[in-house]
Amino acid sequence: MKLVLTSILLFAVSICMGQCTIIISVKDAVAKTALSGATLSLPALQKSSITNEEGIAQFTNIPGGRQQLKVAFMGYETATIVVSMSNKPGPIHLGTDTLANNTGSDKSGTQSGKDTLSPYTGGNKSAIQSGKDPLVLYTGSDKSALQPGKDTLYPRSDALPNHPVNDTLFILLQPQHEELEEVVITTTRSTRTIQNIPTRVEFIGGEELEEKGNMKPGDIRMMLNESTGIQTQQVSATSANSSIRIQGLDGRYTQLLKDGFPLYAGFSGGLGLLQTPPLDLKQVEVIKGASSTLYGGGAIAGLVNLISKAPEEERELRFLINGTSAGGLDLSAFYAQKFDKTGLTLFASRNSSRPYDPSNTGFTAIPKTERYIFNPKLFVYFNPKTKMMFGVNTTFEDRTGGDIAYIKGRGDGYFERNKSSRFSTQFSLEHGGLTIKNSVNNFNRNITIPDYEFDGKQWSTYSEISYHYKDWVAGINYYTDQFVEEPKANTLKRNYTQKTAGAFVQNIWKTTDWLQVEAGLRGDYVADYGFAFLPRVSGLFKFSDHFSSRLGGGLGYKTPTIFTEETERIQFRNIRPIQADSNKLERSYGANIDFNYKTLFFDRLSFSINQLFFYTRINDPLLLENTSLVNIRGYLDTKGWEINVKLGYQDFKLFIGYTFTDAFLHEGGMKRENPLTARHRLNNVLMYEVEDKWKVGLEAYYYSRQALNDGTTGKAYWTCGFMAEKLWERFSLFVNFENFTDTRQTKFDSIYTGTFKNPVFRDIYAPLDGFVVNGGLKIKL
């Protein structure tokens, strides 16, 4: 990372008893805003100071001569400058004379307070702007000969009111390399940088995605599971189907989006996590808490938006090959390039695994899997204001778990086979502030166990028209979800069609320099279920460059379907259909507040902390009672807090996260703990990174006891992992030791009751696959 010091000004300072006084102004090199709380030090004199709210700091009684000055601020490159102190003015009086009206070759003859140098007769006018650039500090070694295009003149110090014009040093700090490219958030529709958006958004960027991709290149479960407040819950012991639980709420309350399109809603959401490799993702944006105002129903616990890479001027071509000690193989390729008026991205992958049973239970901890994915996208740039995107997502998967002998062709034991296919289209057209979006999604899934078969198809569509003007966004959308079940003997047909029409408006209002407010309002009409009114408000409080806070809250809802974690666990067997006359919308409200503080200790140790408090309540939650899904007369609420601490020292970074979740179901004056929710969870990650050379990471995660659906309580456990990657210019080699403590639920608890041929599987709350080593090769051309 390269330090760029874009402006330095030093005047001849007044002398008192042989001592000097220096005033220093520190600003952001890009935004030109004052940096409050920057640390300045003169190591030889053991003096230090901190800039005030105006970015100003002062040193007094500084002896004449050369002194080394260090300026540090978290998120910026540290500046080290040699300052010369003198009471003798130079040939041009700094802070007084300007370069104008002197065409002579000897610039040192300027008379203080009288002469100006204009016009400038050099061949390169860019070095000095005639009549505009005042002289502050000339950096050339020969003061009598200004070299156009080489020497630099900086702004005069009297731009700062109430400060002497002959004793101020201006320093503009350049942001660190990793922050040079601003992180733009799109999930909230405002396309603002993450630092300036009132809604609390958690961001997982490209570098972190690559690191998590080293650990599990085939899907995004690990990437999400290692974030505080998020738990990926395995709902099938044999097929490994999983869902996202945010802050203790079931997976159906989390909305999973792809580029702002709800491609994983309803029936298609069951396998969404398992069928999304991370190689083609640019970033992941997570909003925790009620977010139905943004994209409609389903986002009660929050939403996860997977943002794909877009083509750039420079071609991107990547390959990934990964193998595991459990018999897994991942092959992925990604290509992106922008041409004159068009752009193209292509993503393809093949992921497979052999049946794996490390505990010798006879049942698969990792099912036999074969999956193919192909996602092409075309971009057309008609003009600077108009562009179009059309993409196709395809997935084909065959997954079989259960009796490992049966899967290998021996015996007639228990098995669960999932065959699925996904075909979806994405279309968007942007013209100025107008955006038109559409997606069509077809998802087919067949589940077979020895004496039962489930076969269903889903067609869903999403259409939206929105208009963005300054800080306002308004639009309308229409969503359809049709599920058709193939008739089987002795089964009820659970077919349904849901139609939702919605309208929304939102605005960001900068009330003062320290407060921004984002407010939104959505109205959805759900056929057969009525109207949902969904307000949302968030506020960003910037108390200083070190300390800020976000406060937000809103309403949410979820339309009932038969697809829940409870019904997925039993393959939807004997589940009765949803009835609009007896079932209703699950409605919620929630709020959260967080506090952020960051600073720099000892000029080199960066420190940041984020403290989040949250609360969500769902009225009339939909629960499984015998074979029917019923809206109970009660509520489910979850409350708690998350703490995230980040420490950085040279090439080391330490991340510590803690989540406390208190989730209970209240019914008839009684309350019981929401199952499969760890009350206490601890995340620890230590990273060592030498840029473009090495990445080494050590992880440790703790999960406290969890209540289970059968009335028992699971055991607490730790998991640990180690990852290393060696990088070269065009390729890298990586290895990952996942769960090297070999923590497995089968070591301290059973995973099924009943007989081996007719098992009844219990809740899965800990890993089943144990210690797995994977490694591979990444190529970038």
Short description, anyone?
4% of the residues lie in helices and 51% in strands.
Description of the structure:
The chain is mostly beta strands. It has 3 domains: 15-177, Sandwich (Immunoglobulin-like); 183-307, Ferric Hydroxamate Uptake Protein, Chain A, domain 1, CATH 2.170.130.10; 308-537 and 557-780, TonB-dependent receptor, beta-barrel domain (Maltoporin, Chain A, Beta Barrel). Mean pLDDT is 84; it is low at 1-18 and 87-166.
Task: Kindly list the characteristics that best describe this protein.
3 domains; Ferric Hydroxamate Uptake Protein, Chain A, domain 1; Maltoporin, Chain A; Immunoglobulin-like; receptor; disordered N terminus; 4-stranded mixed β-sheet; 22-stranded antiparallel barrel; 781 residues; mainly beta; Plug_dom_sf; globular; siderophore uptake transmembrane transporter activity
Indicate the CATH class of the largest domain. Answer: Mainly Beta
Overall mean confidence score, pLDDT: 84
Looking at the structure, the CATH topology of the largest domain is Maltoporin, Chain A
pLDDT < 50 runs, ≥5 residues: 1-18, 87-166
Strand content: over 45%
Give the biggest sheet: 22 strands, antiparallel, barrel
List the helices and strands and how they pair.
Elements lengths: L14 E2 L2 E10 L10 E4 L4 E4 L5 E8 L1 E8 L6 E7 L82 E6 L10 E2 L6 E2 L8 E3 L1 H10 L5 H5 L4 E5 L7 E5 L7 E5 L22 E8 L3 H4 L6 E7 L7 E9 L3 E11 L3 E12 L14 E16 L2 E17 L1 H4 L7 E17 L2 E16 L2 E18 L2 E14 L10 E17 L2 E12 L3 E13 L4 E12 L6 H5 L16 E16 L3 E15 L2 E4 L2 E4 L2 E16 L2 E16 L2 E4 L6 E11 L3 E10 L13 E11 L3 E8 L6 H4 L3 E3 L4 E3 L10 E9 L1
Parallel strand pairs: 2-8, 14-16
Antiparallel strand pairs: 1-2, 2-5, 3-4, 3-6, 6-7, 9-10, 11-15, 12-13, 15-16, 17-18, 17-43, 18-19, 19-20, 20-21, 21-22, 22-23, 23-24, 24-25, 25-26, 26-27, 27-28, 28-29, 29-30, 30-31, 31-34, 32-33, 34-35, 35-36, 35-37, 37-38, 38-39, 39-40, 40-43, 41-42
Subcellular location: Cell outer membrane
Pfam family, one: CarbopepD_reg_2
Organism: Chitinophaga silvisoli
